[in-house]
Amino acid sequence: MLIDGDIGGAMDGTGVAEFAGISEQVAAAQAVGYDGLWTSELGRDPFLPLLLAAERSSTLHIGTAIAVAFARNPMTVATVANDLQSYSEGRFTLGLGSQIKPHIERRFSMPWSAPASRMREFVLALRAIWACWNEDVPLDFRGDFYQHTLMTPVFRPAPNPHGAPPVLIAAVGPQMTSVAAEVGDGMLVHAFTTRRYLREVTLPRVQSVLEKRGRGRDQFTLSYPGLLATGRTEEELASAVAAVRKRIAFYGATPAYSGVLELHGWGELHAELKRLSKEGRWDAMGGLVDDAVLHEFAVVGPPGDCAREIRRRFDGLVDRFTPYTPYTLDEATRKAVVAGLHED
């Protein structure tokens, strides 16, 4: 299991970091011992920081987790992904997500319909474009949502010596999970996921689709940002737990994620969290996340204990794990967790 971090503050509670500080974040990530780094589309383009990351490190794997697919079109995404794959010398992964209808229509002013079908076609269009560039295949992609039928020599890049980048699709529900297994090289698991949901819902569906496509599980990457509440003192741990409860409550109020709670028999919790969110009572929501829910969704405890528990839960289940800490975690504590995760 490879251990990843993030740059830009998406998973460490610091918000969106200043672009000028990304070089320092990359250096810190190498010092901590991460295998890779992800960027998210929160207040900044997700691709630009990865150019700096590729320049500052010759070993770290880099990727987007996620870039919003439907805010763009396949040609623009194919182009920037091809450039990052080339510049990083094959260390780039394109992670795509659909976002939700209000953001696509009202924030990005882009069309929304049939997200699973649209995502499937988006990825197939990417592959057709890359095949044109790398394998001299005529560009003739004609779908229901996207059409790409023109590629003149002046706009065609040279074949990428590192090939096309792998594509991972963010998914929670069954339809998008099936799309990820059908046309993706892997799946970005949502943080609002439990070990039980992975074992009983996500993986059986992934395995079923892979088998139909004649692919093995070893050809498919599962990347999971797991919630972590840790600290070196009782005060630090208590503060981390409070922050993680709030994040679980935030996700638990979202209808698209209610199936995870329902699997555990906590459907009523979703209804109550949704009610409080509509009333704007965000501060009260974390108090509804009791210890049973907390420990199901998050790994909690001192750094050494957390590392052992992460490995117990997820070794052999996911391929890449990103410690998700929606609060500020000092570098020494983070390094202790990552070191424990790398132990044989």
TrEMBL record:
Residues 10-319 form the Luciferase-like domain. GO terms for molecular function: oxidoreductase activity, acting on paired donors, with incorporation or reduction of molecular oxygen. It comes from the Bacteria. Signal peptide: none annotated. InterPro entries: F420-G6PD/mer, Lucif-like_OxRdtase_MSMEG_2256, Luciferase-like_dom, Luciferase-like_sf. NCBIfam families: F420_MSMEG_2256. This is Luciferase family protein.
